[in-house]
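Hello,

Following up on my earlier ticket. Below are the two sequence lines again, exactly as submitted.
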Amino acid sequence: MQSDVSMPVVRRLPRYYRFLGELKKAGYTRISSRELSQRMGLTASQIRQDFNCFGGFGQQGYGYNIELLQSEIGRILGLDRLQRLIIVGAGNLGRAIANQIAFEERGFKLIGLFDAKESVVGQMVAGMPIRNVADLDEFCRAELPTVAVLTVPFDAAAAIGDQLVKLGIKGLWNFSHYDFGNRYENVSVENVHLGDSLMTLRYMING
Amino acid sequence: MQSDVSMPVVRRLPRYYRFLGELKKAGYTRISSRELSQRMGLTASQIRQDFNCFGGFGQQGYGYNIELLQSEIGRILGLDRLQRLIIVGAGNLGRAIANQIAFEERGFKLIGLFDAKESVVGQMVAGMPIRNVADLDEFCRAELPTVAVLTVPFDAAAAIGDQLVKLGIKGLWNFSHYDFGNRYENVSVENVHLGDSLMTLRYMING
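Thanks for your patience. The regenerated structure is below:
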């Protein structure tokens, strides 16, 4: 885990990457930090501070070159070096993720999909068969994935996490509601709490 | 939209609610702000500051009553007053959300599911038929949903959003990659950018 840059700054990098991609798609080639900040709802000085954590990307008098800036941020994120990824839990959510997430544009290559339910093993999802979770050890020893998406139920999460970490997994994208806390050393856990997002929306509506 | 409390504080409320629920499930009845802070990776003074935004919840010398605190936070979030919700876009992600999100525990009641694809209209998901998006106006005028989950493609998001807002929708849970910015007044938009979360994980792994 990289620790030289603070997590709030790190969390803004994907947003910059995404915004710059949209600007590029819309045909823009250059943008000033002021323009970028207005579009993103940040201050220009915030953006310059963030970019200075990575050397500044040398804004010229007439702004940043959008394509260069985006590819530089992508390189910092590691998007140019694909990590091998598996999905454990091939229910609705695991399948949606397999089918809809553009892994190769986000720094990952999906290489396997696992489920505990015998009845779904062998079904094709995203061009590959769902494998039996009983074959997880063998698969990981042969294929060496480094990252796992956890779309398993709460009660299965800790045991599967332990097993995966023993097999060399260095990152967990955790959709289960299980809280790994500091259970593992040297493993990055990114939690997705959709329920928290939904409750935040409920608060904002105020009715 | 409630604006008296800052968004970072608001975003921590669902986390408190979730942690307290887990403590309750594990059989605890009281907890001090120090204990709660250790479990959540916050400082005790942060927690007290957050709670003071809502009157403090009167911690006694021997801590908070977990059940009371959770139900009070739930009430602040609005979880006791269900908002009527529809899902627009019944692909993999829309179906996963319909099947796996515990809406009624999060302040919402799922009342309808829509898709533009004729071939899926009529299929049953989460105990209700997928409706034709062409019937959205009629349905909304009769059933008065206040919130919509947007699981439509990027190119469809703005038009569907405009239509929904005209029909009285006050909140959007936006999974499309479309950025609504300040397109609507008095409509709360909660964006879920799974790709940003995944890129953050890619950065953390650092390989």
